[in-house]
Structure of BadM/Rrf2 family transcriptional regulator:
Amino acid sequence: MKVSSKGEYALRALLVLGQQQGKVISIQEISDRTLVTVHYLEQLLLQLKKLGYVSSKRGAKGGYILQKTTEEINIGEVIRDLEGPLSPMGCASLTKYEPCQLEAGCQLKPLWSLVRDTIAYVLERTTLADLLDNRLSLVKGEDLVVVKTPS
């Protein structure tokens, strides 16, 4: 799995909207705060709108607003919706499995499955609220990033 600029920029836009949850933010302001061109943001925000993450308002005071709460926006879902499967290889994908002629007895498939599971574990347990509240941390001695639950 590789997150492209599309996935990164979409998450940046969602973060800006999440910081101002409940307010309509102009595409120019989102562009200024994310350093993503208005033209590219138009495409990304249209896709995020179709996926139900944001809605738009037309007019002089128009712009975009989150359609869901920051707690409801799961980063794993956003990445899958925009980028496709989390698995680094098709043979290890749970959602877009692609068979391989060498799969039977393959010694690499367990590695790819572990990578997929680790990525999914972190992304599926992370919400936009977790990112906004800086609730990610490295578990010392475990070398695994996890989401801290709010106290």
User: Anything to note?
Assistant: The mean pLDDT is 88.
